[in-house]
Amino acid sequence: MDINELKNFKKIRRKLGLTQADIAEKIGITTNSYARIEQGRAKPSYDTLKAICKELKIPFPLK
Q1: pLDDT in tens, the chain (63 residues)
Q2: Which of 6, 8, 23, 58 has the greatest count of CB atoms below 10 A from its CB?
Q3: Element (H or E) spanning 28, and its range?
Q4: Is 18 helix (H, G, I), strand (E, B) or coil?
Q5: C-alpha–C-alpha distance, residues 31 and 45, integer Å
Q6: Do 47 and 56 touch, CB atoms closer than 8 A?
Q7: CATH classification of the domain holding 45
Q8: Rounded distance, CA 55 to CA 57, Å?
Q9: What's 41's DSSP letter?
Q10: pTM for this model (two decimals)
């Protein structure tokens, strides 16, 4: 997964009217951890990535 794919998370999240805190709470991580993932500064685990995709209504696995 590259940084451009992670930036798409931000676009999709905003389109859905969700905050970073909303996603983080729903998937059980801190807002800071989610922000770092979205910024490309942290690599999510498989399970975390799957949970993010579910909340953002993105097909998983990513292509």
Answers
A1: 555 666 789 999 999 999 999 999 999 999 999 999 999 899 999 999 999 999 999 888 866
A2: 23
A3: none
A4: coil
A5: 16
A6: no
A7: 1.10.260.40
A8: 5
A9: S
A10: 0.85
Question: Is residue 42 a part of any domain in this protein?
Answer: yes
Phi, psi of 59 (to 5 degrees): -60, 140
Would you tell me how many other CB atoms lie within 10 Å of the CB of residue 59?
7
- What is the DSSP secondary structure assignment for residue 17, as one 8-state letter? T
Does the residue 37 lie in any domain?
A: yes
User: How many domains in the chain?
Assistant: 1
Which residue carries 């799957």 as its tokens?
50
d(CA 49, CA 60): 9
- Domain assignment present for 62: no
Residues in CB range of 32: below 8 A, 6 or more apart: none
Is 28 within a domain? yes
Range of the domain at 45: 3-56
